[in-house]
Amino acid sequence: MKPSASVQHSTDEAAQPRMERLVDGERARLTFSLDGTPSTAQDGDTILTAVLTARRYLVESACGEGKRAGFCLMSACQECWVAVDGTRARACSTLVTAGMSVATGEHFTGG
User: Which residue in 8, 43, 52, 67 has the fewest CB atoms around it within 10 Å?
Assistant: First the structure.
């Protein structure tokens, strides 16, 4: 997966996306808010895919073990909870929709 054009590249590895789109299909581009910042995804992307094409991690571990990028990718673990328009959701199984607001980490107050 190739990072979206709106992503600015840095020489700092921590600022690089974790995923890169290898084939950029004909899917529609969607704009959504990620921790208060405009971001883009492709129609059919999960929140996890969209976030990891923009940065290297999804959330800080609730156990204090550092930044996490998802674990099971099938909604079985508790690693990818985010808030979508104020409601808890799993990033690995929730599709991005145009205009949605996603909050992660310290931006996620849904507990």
Answer: 8
Distance CA 102, CA 87 (A): 9
pLDDT digits 0-9 by tens, 84-106: 999 999 999 999 999 999 998 76
Residue 6 to residue 80: CA distance in whole angstroms: 24
Sign of CA dihedral 68, 69, 73, 75: positive
pLDDT the model gives residue 63: 67
Burial 7-41 (b: 16+ CB within 10 A, else e): beeeeeeeeebbbeeeeeeeeeebebebbeeebbb
Alpha helix positions (H), the chain: 47-52
pTM for the full predicted model: 0.73
Under the banding of pLDDT at 50, 70 and 90, the label for residue 8 is very low
